[in-house]
Amino acid sequence: MHYDKPKDECGVFGVFGHPRAVELTYLGLRALQHRGQESSGIVASDGEGFSKHHGMGLVDAVFNADVLAKLSGHIAIGHNRYSTTGESNIENAQPLVRNYKQGPLALGHNGNLVNAPQIRNHLENLGSIFSTTLDTEVVFHLIAHSRQDSLEDRIFDAFRAVEGAYSFVCMDKTTLMGARDPHGFRPLWIGKLGDAFVLSSETCALDVIEAEPIREVEPGELVTFRSKQLGLESFRFSPKQPKLSQCIFEFIYLARPDGMMFGHGVNSTRREFGRQLAREHPVKADVVIPVPDSATIAALGYAEESGIPFDLGLSRNAFVGRSFMNPTQNIRELMVKVKLNPINEVLQGKRVVVVDDSIMRGTNSRSLVKIVRQGGATAVHVRIASPPNKYPCFYGVDTPTQAELIASKHSTEEIRKYIRADSLGYVSIEGMLNAVEKPNNFCTACFDGDYRISLNESIPRQLPLIS
Q: Which residue from 126, 178, 117, 131 is spatially nearest to 152, judged by alpha carbons?
């Protein structure tokens, strides 16, 4: 892989009690496209059985009018995938659908289960057969092996066995369910559209279908929707509330700025990152420019705090898809120029502050500095609206390995020399956390290595129930 940004995780969406649940789920997935671009899928139920469709690629490539017309029901769940575990192929496209003794079940997952390999090995030794390489499939087998009677209790058994980050949408023929892990790593929102209910990774997808955001699913909570009369039912499956570990990178890069996340506005939080960056790393310059689009809000904050004028100095080609070349370094640098090109009249003869959200390998940053200089900048000062990424994420965001992360083995000055900037500054961990309420509720493992769930989980004690 040759990317220099974290890959977005996955997006999940669900609708209960609406005659056009399929079309609404399609629109929700379109709004959540930024969270996964490898595959997309929708499963629907009319109360009697499932209809489903999965495909590789973007939502509008996977679904068209003819495909959507073949899906029917008042309940639907959808999923956009970027692989954090498991290979990128159609077998791993979600939502997964399996049959067990109580009927069909569909499941979509955002996150990463850190003890899935140990559980999978244990289940395979007991005779379980897996058809994907996904950690998500472990949950199906745990549900099927549970000796509990109700589906909710079977799900509780499964959730008590797994460790890691997860927001799930799940459905059988008559019920929509949603759940978040007890640490609250990944987001999941509840919305209401008339007398129908909606689940979504982000509020932006609720806005698109004109659903009213109600609240977030609480960490360690399972919500169910089985009838309009009962409405929302809530169950706690975690007897103890562990330390919250909400993903701070949602604010830095992953989430769209037009929504709420973990009780905070993404736009205002991202802008405050930029303000704090300006306080910590001021510089004399003529213009502040963002690396579009994810750093635009932080760059606005930097410009507001510093008093340096803001402008758009890089033009982004919005129609560049994935590249399947195995490029040389020279070709890789040219590929960056396909996506971003300098606006010379903004940069010519200027001392430029370039604000970006993060640096992973450093290869993109090096190319960006070169592009800005080619646009006529007399000085290029790079400012990063997050701390140095020194450690990989194991909780549902696909990042390079630690050996590939440039900050894991190089100082800021060494990185500055590598990317050939006149200066380089990162916001501090403390400064970043000052932008949010209750900073102890956020996971910062990618910056400080403080992994709040052990990465070497043994077989959990709950598993003897399937031995």
A: 178
Per-residue model confidence as pLDDT tens digits over 328-372: 656 656 667 678 899 999 999 999 999 999 999 999 999 999 999
Contacts of 69 (CB under 8 A, 6+ apart): none
CA distances from 400 to 64, 185, 392, 406 (A): 34, 19, 6, 10
Residue bearing tokens 């990465």: 455
In angstroms, the CA 461 to CA 446 distance is 29
* pLDDT, tens only, 148-173: 999 999 999 999 999 999 999 999 99
Cα Rg, the chain, nearest whole Å: 23
Phi first, then psi: give them for residue 147, nearest 5 degrees. Answer: -95, 5
Q: Which of 10, 204, 247, 446 is catalytic?
A: 10
Q: Which two three-digit tokens encode residue 205? A: 């997808």
For residue 446, indicate whether it is catalytic: no
Residue 141 exposure: Cα atoms within 13 Å on the Cβ side: 25
Burial 184-203 (b: 16+ CB within 10 A, else e): bbbbbbbbbbeebbbbbbbb
Amino acid at 49: G
Cα atoms in the 13 Å half-sphere on the side-chain side of 283? 22
Residue pair 93/41 in contact (Cβ under 8 Å)? The answer is yes
d(CA 130, CA 136): 11
**Token pair belonging to 394:** 């194991």
DSSP string, 170-184: EE-SS-EEEEE-TT-
Q: In degrees rounded to 5, what are phi and psi of residue 253?
A: -145, -40
Q: Is the dihedral of CA 264, 265, 270, 273 positive or negative?
A: negative
